[in-house]
From TrEMBL:
The gene is LOC112240293. The active site is at 208, 237. The keyword Cell cycle does not apply. One of its GO terms (biological process) is aldehyde metabolic process. Residues 5-416 form the Aldehyde dehydrogenase domain. It holds the Pfam family Aldedh. Belongs to the aldehyde dehydrogenase family. It comes from Oncorhynchus tshawytscha (Chinook salmon). This is Aldehyde dehydrogenase. Keywords: Membrane, NAD, Oxidoreductase, Transmembrane, Transmembrane helix.
Length: 446
């Protein structure tokens, strides 16, 4: 079954159907129509999957997607055009350029936490770049996955952009097939399996993974601003995973977060804006991380609803289990550090994170944090905003992933940049002669 789907996508790609720019634009506009027409159904599916609030659906998933589509539609001709490059003396009268061209059939494997954005954003780039693409949404967000499978063929060419639903075995079956690129979003354990499967066919990969993204709060900052953000129950790849701050401000940080959480009213559990954990396994996993701690804030849970209150834990030792794996839930440990040097050291001796956040009014602190650490992306004095700009490449580094996307970066990531040199024959005698033996050209001409 999976084999036939991939085969058909490839045949259609090879027939050249996905290449004409007008076709790509038409498909992208149709995808835009799907989002506009079906926004209500998409929000309902997300409510069923993850109790996503109606307000958050456009904000966290659909607006970004629509921006990606309209950017691709308006810039496609420019992105797909040959890109002239500098010439040397020997090639001065030739045409020398880079031609972006489609790779072939792309496999897109999405994750459950943003089931629409994480499958459709790569798809926008795949279509724009002229590829065929097989879309495999996460089985954990099952309502979104089946809605996507029902909707996509009504709006897009179904041979070129099929949706395959399923879990581990279906994904592994897909991974046995040969693709021209695999774009995977999810955890790093599966990321390694994807890379292994891709290696068998020498298929390039984009791996959008996760990890522990630190948030350093300097003592020199307005704490009300620093403690203001909280979305999707912490189930966001670039969510601040833990806070680093000096002991002297720890209690004020906790207090700042308490004030922020009043957004949800006195009881987050009854707030329509507060989500739930995706499934029981993840609920148990997140709760187990809390074992042995007393929460400074929150700590309540209800397994029947997979509800976990926004929870803050103070004075977490660096070697605690909470600090070993990505939390991906509404728990926020605070680890105290003695100063900026200590914070930088703490971050640098761990795996390279997907994101780093720094809150400070002190330019020197910001400058040092930027210069002396690395991460996929960084936002200073806010969280997650670097993700929202499609002019910035989004992706990880080291263990947090490989490859980048958003806007033109997705187009480039899913294109082959072909080096093209079209020689002008007119110059052969004058320009090319010195290249050929014998080296003594005077002699050769005689
Ligand atoms: P998930 O469980 O939905 O898995 C992701 C995909 O992998 C799914 O489509 C699933 O079917 C497939 N899969 C699972 N097990 C597999 C196996 N054994 N073989 C082949 N395929 C398999 O999502 P998840 O991994 O729980 O997602 C959460 C993780 O993803 C977190 O680490 C998070 O940080 C990361 N994430 C990263 C980004 C990013 O853009 N960098 C975005 C979202 C999530």
């Amino acid at each position: 079954m999976e084999m036939q789907v991939v085969q058909r996508a490839r045949e259609n790609f090879l027939a050249g159907r996905s290449r004409p720019l007008e076709f790509r634009v038409q498909q992208l506009k149709s995808l835009q129509r799907m989002i506009t027409d079906r926004q209500g159904e998409i929000a309902t599916a997300l409510k069923q999957d993850i109790n996503r609030s109606q307000y958050d659906t456009p904000l966290l998933e659909l607006i970004g997607l629509e921006n990606e589509i309209s950017l691709a539609v308006s810039k496609l001709a420019q992105w797909a055009a040959p890109r002239p490059v500098e010439k040397s003396l020997l090639t001065i009268s030739d045409q020398v350029y880079i031609q972006p061209e489609p790779l072939g059939v792309v496999l897109i494997i999405g994750a459950w936490n943003y089931p629409w954005a994480l499958t459709l954003q790569p798809l926008v780039g795949a279509i724009a770049a002229g590829n065929a693409a097989v879309v495999k949404p996460s089985e954990l967000s099952e309502y979104s996955a089946s809605l996507l499978k029902a909707l996509l063929p009504r709006y897009l060419d179904q041979e070129l952009y099929p949706v395959v639903c399923g879990g581990v075995s279906e994904t592994q079956e897909l991974l046995r097939q040969r693709f021209d690129h695999i774009f995977y979003t999810g955890n790093s354990t599966v990321g390694k399996l994807v890379m292994e499967a891709a290696a068998r066919h020498l298929t390039p990969v984009t791996l959008e993974l996760g990890g522990k993204s630190p948030c350093y709060i300097d003592k020199d900052v307005d704490l009300r601003v620093a403690c203001r953000s909280f979305v999707n129950c912490g189930q966001t790849c670039i969510a601040p995973d833990y806070i680093l701050c000096e002991p002297s401000i720890q209690n004020r940080v906790v207090e700042g977060i308490r004030q922020t959480l009043l957004f949800y009213g006195p009881d987050p559990k009854s707030s329509p804006d507060y989500g739930r954990i995706i499934n029981q396994r993840h609920f148990n996993r997140v709760m187990a991380l809390l074992d042995g701690y007393t929460a400074a804030l929150g700590g309540q849970s209800d397994s029947s609803q997979r509800y976990i209150a926004p929870t803050v834990v103070k004075d977490v030792p660096p070697h605690a289990r909470l600090m070993q794996e990505e939390i991906f839930g509404p728990l926020l440990p605070i680890v105290t550090v003695s100063d900026i040097d200590d914070a930088i050291h703490f971050i640098s001796e761990r795996e390279k994170p997907l994101a780093i956040y720094v809150f400070s009014s002190n330019k020197k602190v910001i400058k040092r944090m930027l210069a002396e650490t690395t991460s996929g992306g960084v936002t200073v004095n806010d969280v997650m905003m670097h993700y929202t700009l499609n002019s910035l490449p989004f992706g990880g580094v080291g263990q947090s992933g490989t490859g980048r996307y958003h806007g033109k970066h997705t187009f480039d990531q899913l294109s082959h940049h072909r080096a093209c040199l079209v020689k002008s024959l007119g110059m052969e005698e004058r320009v090319n002669m010195p290249r050929y033996p014998p080296q003594n050209h005077q002699k050769a001409r005689r």
